[in-house]
Design a protein that fits this description.
Elements: H1 2-26, H2 29-43, H3 45-70, H4 78-91, H5 104-122, H6 149-165, H7 170-187, H8 192-210
Helix pairs in contact: 1-2, 1-5, 2-8, 3-5, 5-8, 6-7, 6-8
Length: about 220
Amino acid sequence: MYMLEVVLTPIVWVIDLVLGIYVYLFSSIGIAILFTSFTFALLLLPVQKIANRSEKRIGEKIKKVDAEVKTLGREIKGEKLFLATEKIYQRNGYHPIQSIGMGASFFVMLPVLISAILLFTSSEILVDRSFLLINDLSRADGLLGAVNVLPLVMFLITLLDAKLRFKDDKKSQYRFFFISLVLLVIVYDLPSGLVLYWIGSNIMSLILNRLQPNR
C-alpha cells in the first residue's frame, strides 16, 4: 500500500491542485469535485479512445471465436473438443486471457480513481464540508437513513454506460455488471465526496462514449 501511495503521489498532487483551483472559482466543494472529475476524464480521453478501440477489437475476436466453437456441434466431446477449440483459438490468434482486455477503458481510469481515494480519505479536505443535501462529504451520504444513495447512483450510471456501449455484446454487459457490483460494495461506505468524484467520472464517460458511437 505504501509503494502504491508513493507511485501515485504525483497524480494525487495534481488532483489536489486542480480541486483547489475549482474551489476558488466556484466556492463550492461539491461542484469543485465534479469539475475535477470531468477535467481528468477529458485529460484521459486520448488514452481512453485507444482502450475503447482495443475493447472493440477483442470483442469482435471473441464473437468470431465463439461462433466458430459453436459450429463444432455436440458430437465432439472430451479431448477432441478441446483440441478442435484450441485450433480455432490458434487460427484467430486468441487466448481466453485476452478477455481481460474488455475492461481496458476501466483500467485506464483506475490510477486516477485510486489517487482520488488516497486524496479524499487521507486529508481533512472533506471534513464538515456540505453539498446540496449532504451535510458532511467526509462521511457516507446516508440520504435515506441507513441507505447510501450516491453509491447506487454511481452503480446505475455505470450499468447504463455499459448497456449503451456494449448493446450488441451481452457478455461484455454482464462483465461490466459484475465490475459495477464489486465497485458498489467497495465504495458503499466510503466518503460521499469520493463517491461524488466517481459519479462525475462516470457521467463524463457516459457522455464521451455517446459522442463517439463509431469509435
